[in-house]
Amino acid sequence: MTNEAGTHGAILQDTAPENGDHPLVELRNAGKSYGNIRALHGVGLQVHPGRVTCVLGDNGAGKSTLIKIVSGLHQHTEGEFLVDGEPVRFSTPREALDKGIATVYQDLAVVPLMPVWRNFFLGSEMTKGPWPVRRLDIERMKKTADQELRNMGIVLDDLEQPIGTLSGGQRQCVAIARAVYFGARVLILDEPTAALGVKQSGVVLKYIAAARDRGLGVIFITHNPHHAYMVGDHFSVLRLGTMELSASRDQVSLEELTNHMAGGAELASLKHELAQVRGVDVDRLPEAEELTVPAATGEGKS
Ligand SMILES: Nc1ncnc2c1ncn2[C@@H]1O[C@H](COP(=O)(O)OP(=O)(O)O)[C@@H](O)[C@H]1O
Ligand SMILES: [Mg+2]
Fold first, then answer.
1. What's a Pfam family in this record (predicted)?
2. How far is the CA of 263 from the centre of ligand 1 (A)?
3. Which ligand is closest in space to the CA of residue 61?
4. How far apart are the CA of 241 and the centre of ligand 2, in A?
């Protein structure tokens, strides 16, 4: 369903689904103001199990504000926020986590010098023995971490190695596996591929797909339409705090998505400028007009 105007989202989605088949997470006509600054308004979003919902947008579009609402860091100031069909208002990230909403931030909260398995259980360590001689169940933690990483298809040579020695992509993957193990139903990833190279990005995308295949609802924040299109089932594009596009995979092509992200008209004028300044071969850049209008008969370039 296309949400043409964003602000009508609530009206379009107002009919409650029958047989209790609610989205895991839903925003209806939601918004957030920081004092006088209206960072987000009229936003609709649905997260379903086993599906990847991509949220795209340029810097300042409101992506982080949106996920801060869902992850319990901030509260919405307009519209509705529902979990399992029930209106909610979280005061802390802990409350979101209790509902199974886990967030993997770009700057992960890990202790670099601690082994991988130790970071996997950080803050939720397994123990054994009766009080007062309870101690860490190291063997069981190592075994479980190894098993859980393998279940996600993540193979690391040695779980004893400090997590700081892993690549950024591998660390993201460990964080994803950790969230899955601790019972997340909704996984929020804030720009997990932004700082990564091509190959590493591919690895992270693979585990996003693995989390989806295990039935989690994934919210994937990115400004890269190519990454989004590789794993996404639904695409929401934010621009200046409002929803410019909300479309499922069969409603939008990669070209259209790229064009929405680039801002078709802006890209076209930029191309003209580039051509004048440096003699850039503009014909090798994507043709913005062609992306929206069905291909013309090959003429019309004045
Ligand atoms: N804590 C805040 N106080 C005031 N304005 C904020 C705050 N956080 C974000 N904003 C503003 O809200 C808008 C959206 O920001 P943000 O959600 O971070 O966008 P994105 O993550 O897409 O880059 C920006 O104009 C930003 O300056
Ligand atoms: Mg951001």
1. ABC_tran
2. 20
3. 1
4. 12
